[in-house]
Amino acid sequence: xxxxxxxxxxxxxxxxxxxxxxxxxxxxxxxxxxxxxxxxxxxxxxxxxxxxxxxxxxxxxxxxxxxxxxxxxxxxxxxxxxxxxxxxxxxxxxxxxxxxxxxxxxxxxxxxxxxxxxxxxxxxxxxxxxxxxxxxxxxxxxxxxxxxxxxxxxxxxxxxxxxxxxxxxxxxxxxxxxxxxxxxxxxxxxxxxxxxxxxxxxxxxxxxxxxxxxxxxxxxxxxxxx
Length: 226
Known about the structure:
Helices cover 73% and strands 0% of the residues. It has helices at 23-44, 47-61, 69-100, 106-124, 127-136, 149-188, 196-210, 213-224. Helix 2 (47-61) runs antiparallel to helix 3, helix 3 (69-100) crosses helix 4 (106-124) and helix 6 packs across helix 7 (196-210). It is elongated and about 75 Å long.
């Protein structure tokens, strides 16, 4: 009995009409975007600053795994969606919609799509951090348009880390004062064997509730991106 081995071929053809992309290419593009999506969200949006600040809050409170990581990541994602919505709408209106309707080419669509994202990153990037990578790359850009996107991304990430740590430092101060006060009181009472964290934790949670901490932190994050 003879068996025939099937032959599978895969061919690519050029097309000037974006609507003629076949299903295989579309699936490939979707898988590629899904693979790069976490890096895009983390490194080119407000996600980095938000998740670090939320992590500082939990560490300052000393509640260990409360809120859990899933909650913090979820809050950070939805806040990122809220902050980045104007940028995403501009990318869709200026790049995606004209490209799918055949009004602009793919290269023009990429340039127009990157423009709002670059504008957002430039607004949040410190000049000192940007000059650091520009000088190391030995570039002499005449304007912001001459700065490559990959240099802008790393500069943006460094700036976001510094801003997040600055906000985290301010968050830690009131809780640190409570810890020092509780530790001093316990030492004065001769209760050195009692862990100060057990006593200070309820007071820190109470302080956070009284000042409406979550509202204060979220509003501070939103203001920091304006």
